[in-house]
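Schema walk-through. Below, the input block comes first and the output block second. Nothing else is stored per chain. Lengths vary across the set, and this one has 71 residues.
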Amino acid sequence: ALIHLHGLSSEGIFRLAGEQSEIHRVKELLNTKKFDVNSTRDVNAIASLIKVNINMIRVLFFFYSKTIFTL
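--- output ---
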């Protein structure tokens, strides 16, 4: 929803990294389930977290697929 609301007017979304302090703050809000759409207007921080999570899922998938196929 945040990317839909503010991402259309933002240049370089998913290309530009968000500020590390804002990424950390948003990550803490998400982990404690206190995040809502009004928590930040920095779509690059949200996009950075999405990219990090996709990469983590990809790494875990390849790790477990190698483990399963070598058994």
